[in-house]
Specification:
There is one protein chain. The protein is of the alpha/beta class and about 230 residues long. It has one domain: Vaccinia Virus protein VP39 (Rossmann fold, 3-Layer(aba) Sandwich). Helices cover about 35% and strands about 25% of the residues. The chain is built from 7 helices and 9 strands. The strands form 2 sheets. The chain has a 7-stranded mixed β-sheet. Strands 6-7 form a two-stranded antiparallel sheet. Helix 5 links the parallel strand 4 and strand 5. Helix 1 runs parallel beside helix 4. It is globular and about 50 Å long. The two termini are about 35 Å apart. The structure holds S-adenosylmethionine. S-adenosylmethionine (SAM) binds next to helix 1.
């Protein structure tokens, strides 16, 4: 699983270069959910902030943003591009913040990289203030199920079993390996005890995400929660 995490070091440059072109649908969906929140003076955390481009957007929207990012190459790139940003090296599963630190927590295309999404969601519940918002975009489990079928050539396919699957993005220029997740990991009883789900959308962004067998299916989803 260490390799899964380290792979982002290899992609950081090309990902940073192409994300603006390929992530248009996801960005539109994600920022629509964020736009109804007044970010002025609010402390915002981005889990898996990549090259920091979103942090700059959040800052322009009035937030006081901070990022956490495990890939040292991404952290270096972000600091070169945007020297004023605050980005801490680290993972979402164990974050160096006190409880109830943030008004808003966001994450885009980072949760699915973790083998332990419930652990990250527990951390979000800990660091978010009551009535704070949590918005995340992640790979859709249906997409990961199709990627699993492709990776293992249709043999012994089990939706519920975590397996590292091949995923191709950005017109197949980037090959990722990520653990698969069922939908119930994101919407567990524990999550629903801590948060109210207030918005949800699923959509697709071919050919930014590989289109398997010309099927039409959701490649990502965005959820918006309010902390109880
Ligand atoms: C596909 S990139 C997305 C980057 C950025 N959020 C964006 O939308 O451009 C996924 C990011 O998640 C980070 N990541 C991977 N595993 C993580 C974890 N366990 N906790 C936090 N971030 C993680 C990767 O290093 C990478 O920067």
């Amino acid at each position: 699983m260490k390799k899964v995490l380290k792979q982002y070091n290899n992609f950081s440059k090309i990902y940073s270069r192409d994300r603006g072109v390929h992530d248009e649908v996801g960005d539109r969906r994600f920022y629509k959910f964020l736009s109804s929140i007044n970010l002025k003076g609010r402390r915002l955390l981005d889990i898996g902030c990549g090259d920091g481009s979103d942090l700059i957007n959040f800052e322009k929207m009035g937030a006081i943003p901070i990022g956490i990012e495990p890939s040292e190459k991404f952290v270096k790139l972000a600091k070169e591009k945007f020297p004023s940003l605050t980005i801490l090296p680290g993972k979402g599963e164990k974050m160096p913040f006190s409880k109830k630190t943030f008004d808003v927590v966001v994450s885009k295309y980072a949760l699915q990289t973790s083998p332990n999404i419930p652990k990250i969601l527990n951390e979000v519940a800990r660091v978010l203030k009551p009535n704070g918002y949590f918005i995340f975009l992640s790979k859709h489990p249906i997409r990961q199920f199709l990627e699993k079928i492709n990776t293992f050539k249709g043999k012994n396919i089990n939706y519920f079993e975590q397996k590292v699957v091949d995923s191709f993005i950005y017109e197949k220029k980037i090959h990722l390996r990520e653990p698969s997740h069922p939908l119930s990991e994101y919407f567990s009883k524990n999550v629903l005890n801590n948060f109210d789900l207030i918005d949800f959308v699923e959509d697709y962004d071919f050919p930014a995400s590989e289109q398997i067998n010309n099927y039409i299916y959701p490649t990502f989803f965005v959820a918006k929660f309010k902390k109880r």
